[in-house]
Target: Galactonate dehydratase
Amino acid sequence: MSAALQDPRSILLHSTDNTAVAVDSIAPGALVRGVVAKARIHKGHKIALAPISLGAPVLKFGQIIGFATQPIEPGDWVHEHNVAVQEFDRDYRFAEGAKADDNLLPENQRASFQGFRRANGKFGTRNYIAILTSVNCSATAARFIAKEVERSGILDDYPNIDGVIPLVHGTGCAMDTKGEGYEVLKRTQWGYAANPNMAAVLMVGLGCEAFQIGKWKEAYGIVESDAFRSLVIQDMGGTRRTIDAGVEAVRAMLPLANGYTRETAPASELMLALQCGGSDGYSGITANPALGAAVDLLVRHGGTAILSETPEIYGAEHLLTYRAADRAIGEKLVDLIHWWEEYSARHGGEMNNNPSPGNKAGGLTTILEKSLGAAAKGGTGTLRGVYRYAEPVTAKGFVFMDTPGYDPVAATGQVAGGANVLCFTTGRGSAYGCKPTPSIKLATNSDMFRRMSEDMDINCGDILDGVTVEEKGREIFDFILKTASGEKTKSEALGYGDAEFVPWQLGAIM
Amino acid sequence: MSAALQDPRSILLHSTDNTAVAVDSIAPGALVRGVVAKARIHKGHKIALAPISLGAPVLKFGQIIGFATQPIEPGDWVHEHNVAVQEFDRDYRFAEGAKADDNLLPENQRASFQGFRRANGKFGTRNYIAILTSVNCSATAARFIAKEVERSGILDDYPNIDGVIPLVHGTGCAMDTKGEGYEVLKRTQWGYAANPNMAAVLMVGLGCEAFQIGKWKEAYGIVESDAFRSLVIQDMGGTRRTIDAGVEAVRAMLPLANGYTRETAPASELMLALQCGGSDGYSGITANPALGAAVDLLVRHGGTAILSETPEIYGAEHLLTYRAADRAIGEKLVDLIHWWEEYSARHGGEMNNNPSPGNKAGGLTTILEKSLGAAAKGGTGTLRGVYRYAEPVTAKGFVFMDTPGYDPVAATGQVAGGANVLCFTTGRGSAYGCKPTPSIKLATNSDMFRRMSEDMDINCGDILDGVTVEEKGREIFDFILKTASGEKTKSEALGYGDAEFVPWQLGAIM
Ligand SMILES: [Ca+2]
Ligand SMILES: [Ca+2]
Ligand SMILES: [Ca+2]
Ligand SMILES: [Ca+2]
Ligand SMILES: [Ca+2]
Model:
């Protein structure tokens, strides 16, 4: 037997799994993690590492992907012929998999980072001044204000400030002010204003738009202060005067913003947004589970991680209802799923995330397993909360926020929810970056990591070569702490983040 | 009698009208345009200038706003008690009001401007290089390419080029590639690439997005050339290399783009986009009819004008079907109206443009009259074509393009349709500006014109003080020719246009 046959590569995605994934095709008789393969197991398919009795759960990612429909022996190929999910799929089993505390570490054993403490006790990982816009009609004025402040060179005198961000968008008018699109925009704007990575906020409007700054301030009890100013072009008498007044307003905010300095903060003050985009066949076995391992660590250290992208977990919501902390949290998720069915139907489409014949040929057995490839980045913790798009996230631990899968829109919702750091897994190679929230990009494969080395922060492709998911998880966790403490990510070095504010647009544009 | 009573101000909106609009409240017995008022006629309401027999059309804006339900005498107050539209409203009367040629001037009497002749024979009024983006994920790369070219100072050596425009947006992925949202984006991108104000185009993509540049090029038969290049971040190996290659691609386009110089072009090569935003009570009696008068002139000179903003003519489509050149054109408009009913219903709303009690108190008698306040900017010409959003406009004369009322979205569709100049009426004061199409802003009232003098190009408020609609129309027409020949508008001087590319987003964001 050749060395290759004796030791084909495989990945164990979680220490509690009873299956491993073949990286190379496994020949019958080959030795895999101490088990002799009983059949040919193709690349991407699963081999049983332990006996699984009839009806017992098949585990991958530390989670149930289905149940044995016949007794499975170590070394067996594990796929449709011996696994099914029917029972599980018909029952949400609310909170049955909930754990009391996700192995929370005692406070004195928890990691820390260097962050900016805000008046409300939250910590920022960056220190920005935001220029929000109520409507596209004030976008150019907002951008010119930021540009003039930047050009003036005055920021050199305020070294603790990371920059001035114009957050412009294409909506804010010709919309139903009683509709969900308006509510989403309202929450998103508030969420950005309140994100702990913001030191101060200027909001610029036109005047006659549907999104009225006055009403918005009233809704959230926002008052004008050294940290919040608003300006309306029609009240100011045009663009030039608005820019002048805006530059003045930002200048007046600089001393306050610069007064924030980094101090030691517990890792429990981190709120991590989880994203993936441009997935490939490796996403579900390298970067996503590795990020999941980092999330499990973050959760043990008292932090928060937000899984999102509802269309990608569709059909496998049982995974999350099962590990919801309580029934109410699980039911919130089920409500979201129903909303998406209605939303798709409204646009003449339908939701479908079932494994395709191609998925099955590639080794994905059940919809749970397919969705877990995406959801794996959320780790294995108990689901502590379910939030609508851009809602403030208040729970600690692992939570879910409803968003589309589309990266900039999804991330915008999470940042509005309060995320102060973001991890983004990508196979094809995303160029995403965000302000005010630093975004760590994780490559699923070494080829792409090398090809796009100036955009990628961490290579998870080496998991295929033997680095364990746990090891990679620790590497990511450490990187998160360093990033949170001020080390720049690749996308920050490139200057990303001024064009990626994309609030979810819902409802008719009239 | 005081002078005020003898000569209260009024507006005659078109030379063929049998009604005038009171600018000041008219007392019974006051003399108005040679007619003695028979009743109190409030500000904004109409006075009859000629006898109107039972069933005869009541004319305002040179168009039918209703029919007399009783004989009307000169000096009568004209409102709901003696006007109704029921008959007209139930029948589209396709093409009954069509004219053979809209008084087209002989070619040797037509005006001209100085424009850039393109290979296809069309003329630009500006000479830009565009950087299009297939998806939000390539937005930052596109903006950095433009920024580096600008910063390098190399444009100083190419004085015929107006600039490099990054046209970024929030969509391009997580959409149904068989849906109408995708088609709209496809057309919009093509329309911008083909707009005669573009000398050359670079398109930047990420690689894994739904909007595939390769497929798009195939759909329109676009081939790589000195005037068109595309770059894909994932193929290039990341952001930095894409920026470098993009800067190189733009530099290579500069000699070709700079080779275009202004030459004499007939006014028939002008395609004028009509917009209004931030309307007020004066829009329908000053700026809109004045712009309509300019459009009638442009049409006589062989040019094209695009009316849009379908929700604002809803319920009064009869106005346009009546003056459609033929039944097919009228039916296309009716189809659009039905599409909007379905679109609104899909989002849980409904279309309604009826005059409200407030509208009626302000003097608006019928839905035709209300919609004409908006449609007046299209003038009185025969409707020569009806286009879907962002479709290439091929007809000469007065045409309609389906768009929402939302300014940046509506204008984006018109520019994609080929508009090389734009007129925008505003009462509250819009700050809109566009690249590549220069945008002339028309104030409806003198107060706002003075208050926002750095944003407004033309004051139409002086119509209230006696300047006639015809005079103002000629002023606007002359201004259009000067602008088309290179004179900068206020919004161009301010630098607007990099944040106002907002393709209409339709369909679910997944
Ligand atoms: Ca995504
Ligand atoms: Ca299901
Ligand atoms: Ca409008
Ligand atoms: Ca009607
Ligand atoms: Ca109707």
Notes: Chain A touches chain B through 66 residues (CB under 8 Å).
